[in-house]
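Predict structure. Chain length: 335.
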Amino acid sequence: MRILVTGAAGFIGSSTALRLLARGDSVLGIDNLNDYYDVNLKRARLTRLTAQAGFEFIPMDISDRTAMAGLFATQKIDRVVHLAAQAGVRYSIDNPHAYVDSNLVGFVNILEGCRHAQVAHLVYASSSSVYGANERLPFSVHDNIDHPLSLYAATKKANELMAHTYSSLYQLPTTGLRFFTVYGPWGRPDMALFKFTKNMLAGEPIDVFNYGKHRRDFTYIDDIVEGVIRTLDHTAQGNPDWNGAKPDPGTSKAPWRVYNIGNSQPVELLTYIQCIEQALGKKATLNLLPLQPGDVPDTFADVADLVADVGYKPATSVETGVARFIEWYRAYYRV
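Prediction complete.
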């Protein structure tokens, strides 16, 4: 297949593109290479891809309506893995317009392109952030998600609603993947693992929010990629038993699905830090702080639907995943 991967210079996008190329698919990658974080890291990820046969890269911003329409009109695209987005809960508080441009305008450009090009399946990144103020754990795709706590979360919920509209109107199969705290080699410098490692190696304190007491369902990058590819190959189907009188938020009569992809083993932040300490052989100096606006105390993925439909469940332990990240970090930054 020829697969369009948006956000191809990103953490998850580049890792997914590599796996697709390794199994014999051709990949058309797009990315705007913005400076939200280190552009050199993004270029280094791209270098890994351009060395592979079957990869083509076009610099492009998904919010550029004309460029996106031209892309779908001139390129043969069988399926789409849409991973480009303005990420980050905290950044969305200070820079809301970036999320509207990328996550809303950009997403409707993707939907329109898929519709007109008759793409066989659109798989796109949602987020565990959509669960917002929900307190019942583990989070299930069959739970209501009407109370987001950040604009980032609201845009990701909006993506799911927009996708449903296109699935319903045009029978476009769409699958949204709610990722739970993705980490690992080639990751994002704005994430805790990157920041903690950098500061600890420099002998500087680390900011630990919610006094280290919140729990996260940390999910290793290879497990995320496996879930993306398995769902890409499993084209979304309508649920014939869906009932509008008792609507199930996780399915539809339309060919629309959402899945959690998480490790289903929440880890307290202080325990996560201990894993970093063990891998680095250094103790951390903790600057304990209250929970930040927009953050949630705990995340925990119910992946029953993912297991039932595609036969997959993430399983990499935090100890293993953190050790692999530290090995990569030391090699990449030569520290």
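Summary: The mean pLDDT is 96.
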